[in-house]
Please model this.
Amino acid sequence: YAVEGAFIFSNYTMNPVYYNGYVAPDMEVNQYAASLGMKYFMFTGMVKPFLGGLVQYNYRTYAWSNKNYSYYNNNYNNNNNSQNTSSQAIDLGLNVGADITFSNKFTVGVDYRYFFNLSSRKDNSAFVYQPYYGTPLEQLNAALLSLSAKVQF
Model:
């Protein structure tokens, strides 16, 4: 067995949403994800496949792209003058992968994580990206494939 914690920061731009001829401007999103997981290793040799479970907390901040915000706010969003907003979500996940041990001090691992949303909350003080239709970002399922190297000193 192994218990692990992880922190992942990501920054991305979300593309416009089209609705009845209106185009919402791009939004800049910062995502902070902290997870805690448990792995069960099936073998003890050089190659150690594993299965596991995870719980992850996501905190996202949204901001209109500066070049588009004032135009959009003046023309389509007069009821809301806030440029920034945030959201929180708790996801549960499954983890599968393998660690390959090359020596007692060096291991390479690959894992695939699939998360599904358990709960989410958006800040109501501002207009969140998908105002008219579609599944909010906080409620989407997500997958993450990672490659890691572990060195013991």
The chain has a mean pLDDT of 81. The helical segments are 66-75. The two ends are 21 Å apart (CA to CA).
